[in-house]
Amino acid sequence: MALVICAQRQSILDENGAILVTGGPGSGKTTIALAKARLVIERGLSPGQSVLFLSFSRAAVARVAEASKTQLPAALQGKLSIQTFHSFFWRILQAYGYLLGAPRSLRLLMPHDEAAMRHEFESNGGDWDIERERLFQETGRVAFDLFAPKAHELLSRSARLRELFSSCYPLIVVDEAQDTAEDQWQCVRLLSAGTQMMCLADLDQQIYDFRPGVSSDRVTHIMAALQPLRVDLAGENHRSPNSEIVAFANDVLLNTPRGAAYRGVSRMNYRANREYRDRAIRQAIGIAIQRAKEAAQGDIESLAVLATWGRGVNVISRALTGDGTNLIPHRVMIDEASVLLSSRMVAFMLEPRRPVAEELLDLADGLDLAATVFRARGGNTNLATAQRLVASAVQSRGGTSPRANGVASKLLAAVRLLRTHEFTGDPKRDWLDARSILRNAGANSFQAIAEDAEQLVAFQRGRRISAALTELWQTQGAYRNARGALDAAIAEDQLLSGGNDLRGIHVMTIHKSKGKEFDAAIIFDDPNSSPLLFTQEAAPHPRCRKLARVGITRARHHVLMLCDMFTPTVLLQGHQL
Known about the structure:
This protein is about 50% helix and about 15% strand. By secondary structure, the protein is an alpha/beta fold. The relative contact order is 0.13. The strands form three sheets. A six-stranded parallel beta sheet has the order 3-2-6-7-1-8, sandwiched between helices. It folds into three domains: about 5-105 and about 145-230, P-loop containing nucleotide triphosphate hydrolases (Rossmann fold, 3-Layer(aba) Sandwich), CATH 3.40.50; about 245-335 and about 500-570, Rossmann fold (3-Layer(aba) Sandwich), CATH 3.40.50.300; about 335-485, no CATH class.
């Protein structure tokens, strides 16, 4: 957006102390924060200094990075460090975690690996919090949930570290400050003593208050601890200025329907029967795209179909997939744990095979990897499958051949096939070949793993992984240690990636959409799989209204409410769309 310096914004630029900027979606919080960052950089920084911009998600980091390209000259962009909280805290732990008694060399315990370990550990009656701390202290493996607590512990115990990081960043901008968990907030508070802190917040987008440590009183805490200049940009809308999307979202939030249409908002009803529902989901895509094009007066690049529950995401994706011959291409953003662990199994299939005399050890490795996938899924059935796979792996390591026609014997046949299979050196083609061999191994377990691995493309991880596999092939002529290359690429992406490419059609929960923007959005309301009244609470249902507002305001040009005809949600009562 073009920046117009009004009196309010000028007060932000002039302020040398702490600042709190509040406002709704598209009100210009990020824009004025970047203007402040530019001003600080232009005034001059010492060697090694930069302005730090902290946000929660990689998508939000990508959005800020893109905006900075238009607001900061190229020569200044290197002085703006845009990071997620996780990446910032990880840097602190890598450098100083040993001060807490951990080994000097720390390793990430990726969320998908933690999920697999945790399900099995807790199913045996263990306390995962204690085990997670032990892993940190004794092995140097750090779970993501420990990043903020450990960084807080370091900063609270060492004045020198506080001074060091405060001096590195003369201005720290905290995006979505209302959603900071307790340890994150305490780190912000501690650093604020030696640097200028600028917090951006929208109380009506606080949808993560169900998470431990996230307080609905966070803005009150900010005011009390930092005593900032507070500037409210409420009422301004630069994301969808030619529509009434934000007005509609606010009316839903406040339960103040105007009883008339809103520009840029429409509603489509469907019959609950699965066939009619799925047809309506597919039709809604075309309708939303066409209306967004009309509003934008040109082509559009992105559309989101949003649900309140993961079950609704599955319903939408199945509808868009159809029978396979009428697929509407889309990307699904769901829990990554099972997908990433399944991809590690495919990477194992890419690796050179052991000598024939050691094929049972090769088989055991594959069975252990498969077991990890099912552990991560959780649930009694999946854990039982994991236990059977582990038992087969133990037998294989002991030199016992698998019984004929069993799951292990089918994987052994696939491993033998791979021994004679010639890969090409093209990572994309070879990945598909390895996944196909796994899928066709003849066991439901391996077919399910291969299908999970297909979703890796939905997470936009392919570029880093392909580059890592290409490097292996070019240096070795084989994919030796493909699993290690995969893990390294995923870890780098988890911490450093600027976010996903949001072009095309995306299906996700509203929670996952936070921080993202799309040309058009469809809000799917289904009483069984994606109810807008997603939790039991008394009228006027404030939590449900907050979540609906977040989903609605993801759209720039058009939002379509897709609703069950016979079970209309009370959140839209009184609205004439």
